[in-house]
Design a protein that fits this description.
Number of helices: 13
Strand order of the largest sheet: 2-1-3-4
Largest sheet: 4 strands, parallel
Strand content: 5-15%
Number of strands: 8
Amino acid sequence: MRVQLFIPCFVDQLYPQTAFNMVKVLEKACCEVHYNTNQTCCGQPAFNAGFQDEAKAVCNKFIADFDNADYVVAPSASCVGFVRNYYGKLFDEPGKQSQVAGLAGRIFEFSEFLTQVLKIEQFGAVLPGKATYHDSCAGLRECRIKEGPRSLLSQVKGLQMVEMNDVETCCGFGGSFAVKFEGISIAMADQKVNNALATGAEYMISTDLSCLMHLDGFIKGKQRPLKTMHLADVLASGWE
């Protein structure tokens, strides 16, 4: 199966190892993985900031970059949810609408692709310890992702999964929300981290590195005994 990767801006710049681990997992599932080096951003930051014309230009490029891909897979429900749910609102031309609808049907968040398209949950991963899972707002509300990541994690040897209280509550990141409403954002991160720690977990795992970046900053600042991990990093653990 031929797959094109979309690697979000912040993953490319700050968490490249997660992208490489995603490739490892997809190749283990016998996918032919490709990466278009011309790719840039999905357009979400500009759109959310109110720069609709600028966002449309970036989105147009994204459509062109991935127009011929059989499947587009990304380690971010936030980006995937934006393409699926908002590109149609930006482009009202009939020809472009068809193109957008086609892309929306071919783009998948990483865990979605594994469980819904490949239908594989066991990758031979090994990670001893206790972990809890964080539902990102984009994953839960825009992509309807809930059970898939948990099914994948239940197959990781040595990993004990425990649910935290208020698991569906936002972590407080929300892109520019964390900048505009810093105090509220930090308080939300505090609540999320305390709920995770109350489970006795050593790891907090999610499909979205944007959430994990925010939470990890809070954890390190407060020197809390908790590690954050993206699902791809977990599934690539314990094997070469």
